[in-house]
Amino acid sequence: MSNNFDVVVIGAGPAGYAAAIRCAQLGLNTACIDKSIGKDGQPTLGGTCLNWGCIPSKALLDASHKYVEAKNELAEVGINTGDVSVDVPKMIARKDEVVAGLTGGIAGLFTGNGVTSFAGTGKLLSNKQVEVVDHDGGTQVLAAEHVILAPGSVPVDIPPAPLTEGVVVDSTGALEFDSVPGRLGVIGAGVIGLELGSVWNRLGAEVTVLEALEDFLPMADQRIARDAKKILSGQGVDIRLGTRVTGAEVTDAGVVVSFDDKDGSQTLIVDKLIVAVGRRPYTDELLDPDSGLVVDDRGFLAVDDTCATEQAGVYAVGDVVRGPMLAHKGTEEGVMVAERIAGFKPQVNYETIPSVIYTHPEIAWVGKTEQELKSEGVEFNAGSFPFAASGRALAANDTQGMVKVLADAETDRILGVHVLGPQASEIVAQAVIAMEFDASAEDLGLIMFAHPTLSEALHEAALGVSGHAIHMMNRKRK
Ligand code: FAD
Ligand code: AMP
């Protein structure tokens, strides 16, 4: 086998594998290198997303939500279930099966599309050469016309809370508990902390989330964030803001977590502690000093809008570059780079990246928040619609939350859509489509939505921007 390729991709997460597959589909001779070892001790593809991120967390979120429904909600709709109990090892094993199916699927896609897969560590050398060290220590050097760096990210650890196997864990460890902890601490009320805290809270743990910031979900629309906090607190997740963790000691009585809040220095004892304080780019062993590339002071690789680095023919995509650390953002960047290498000119629209937090209800948004528009001095109109007034949400007994649409006061162009509610992740996709086509709130209001659907709440919120919502008492008729 020749070691010369048109394209070598380092990293087979959603950014790297999408890039590799698209390159191969476009007729480029493509290799992809990944060093991950799965739970079974074998090389695995799919990166964080498939192995330790999006997919396993959603498998546990969906399973734990079914448990809550069975335990607390089915009786309300006339279904008596008797005693409901949780089998944690079975839940984890099923999660592992989902992961294995999908990671195996990437291997199949590589084979089917003709991507040459290398299991090992890739390092960018000079002149677009890439060294591969396999898991037995064997080394070879690949030569490429183009190199795509997609090494992803890993959890940040903080000195006050060093990891202790099975007790003080990061997000990966939090997907592997073999029983429900009695008391669970979570450091960080970001997306990952809230999702993993929700899983174990639903299964019966007493969950306390300690967050240094005073604001809850500062990146979300603050009205939505306030309502979400109220709902999550009502579910039993104790979210303490303005609480900075300063230490965590594993003792026989449990993990003694020290923190500072407005009342001074305090402690909390928990059985397990999840450290969910963010992620950092994973560039260990990635760059040879001769590669011509260095990371910035936060560990990211600098790229332009087309994900090109300062080295001609070398690109970087996914969590290792600026922008939100989200799988779909990385995938679109990977596809963009592949198509640019093949001579096309696609772009990623960074203004319409959807964000989702998979709590229940889900929190999802795209575009600007109300507080961003205000601070930018943009005049806007807002329309909102509560799920409590949605026929479908009422029929489904799932009525918490609302949809909020923000549109430019002059042009009516949609600037942001914020959803707290059932299926928010699906509803926000419609908002992304509308914004991609530069729709106005009126455009969305003129479109016919099937009845009864949760999506009608988006329709009504869009109509509400000009005071035309049908199922609301509007004073502002035009
Ligand atoms: P990664 O998925 O991290 O993949 C990079 C791969 O490259 C890894 O396999 C790594 O081992 C490999 N690699 C690194 N360096 C080298 C090297 N030198 N040689 C060879 N291989 C190398 N995002 C969402 O959009 N939705 C979600 O619901 C969501 N949920 C999440 C839940 C959790 C618990 C976590 C931790 C993350 C979640 N994310 C979610 C974030 C998402 O997983 C990441 O944004 C995404 O995986 C980034 O993709 P990537 O391809 O850039 O990197
Ligand atoms: P994210 O980066 O969205 O995953 O969120 C991580 C969260 O952890 C941020 O909101 C941080 O403010 C929070 N955080 C970081 N360090 C600490 C700490 N020592 N104590 C409490 N919260 C922290």
List keywords for this structure.
13 helices, 3 domains, alpha/beta, binds flavin-adenine dinucleotide, 31% helix, 478 residues, Enolase-like, domain 1, 5-stranded mixed barrel, 21 strands, FAD/NAD(P)-binding domain, single chain, globular, binds adenosine monophosphate, 5-stranded parallel sheet
Give structural notes.
- The chain has 478 residues and is of the alpha/beta class.
- The protein has 3 domains: 4-155 and 280-350, FAD/NAD(P)-binding domain; 168-277, FAD/NAD(P)-binding domain (3-Layer(bba) Sandwich), CATH 3.50.50.60; 361-465, Enolase-like, domain 1, CATH 3.30.390.30.
- Helices cover 31% and strands 25% of the residues.
- The protein contains 13 helices and 21 strands.
- The chain has a 5-stranded mixed β-barrel with strand order 1-2-3-4-5. Strands 7-14-8-9-10 form a 5-stranded parallel sheet.
- Helix 3 (54-73) packs antiparallel against helix 4.
- The longest helix is centred in the N-terminal third of the chain and has 26 residues, at 88-113.
- The model has no long low-confidence stretch (mean pLDDT 97).
What name does the CATH topology of the largest domain carry? FAD/NAD(P)-binding domain
Query: Strand count, sense and closure of the main sheet?
Result: 5 strands, mixed, barrel
Unreliable parts: none
- What is the CATH top level name of the largest domain? Alpha Beta
The CA-CA distance between the termini, in Å, is 71 Å
Task: Please estimate the helix content.
Answer: 25-40%
Return the CATH architecture of the largest domain.
Answer: 3-Layer(bba) Sandwich
**What is Rg?**
24 Å
The oligomerization state is single chain
Strand content: 25-35%
Count, helices: 13
Q: Which secondary-structure class do the elements indicate? A: alpha/beta
Mean pLDDT across every amino acid position: 97
Q: What is the total tally of β strands? A: 21
Side-by-side strand order of the widest sheet:
1-2-3-4-5
Number of domains: 3
Are any ligands bound, and if so which? Answer: flavin-adenine dinucleotide, adenosine monophosphate
Based on CA inertia axes, which overall geometry fits? Answer: globular
